[in-house]
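Hi, here's the filled form for the chain we discussed.

Project: internal
Contact: R.S.
Residues: 86
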Amino acid sequence: MQEIISKMLDLKLSEIKNEIKNISHQDLYNYIVEVILKNNKIRDVNDAAFYIMNIKVNKLYEYLNFKNIKDDSNTIEMDLKSILEG
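And the returned structure, exactly as it came back:
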């Protein structure tokens, strides 16, 4: 089952890369874990296929933007340090 899900993720990733060029396999995996599996359970391959193949590009884009905004390493203090260091 793990191999089949991995192949489905690869297929979905190749589809999504047409819209979001810089997305990685890890980004897609994190989206599934943090968003889809938060409220749903995957019991079999059919469930996995349903959730993976129904991932919407705009929802994934929103997730990536939110994750980027929420990044704790990107603070005013870090920005000032990078400016002062040159």
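Let me know if anything looks off before we file it.
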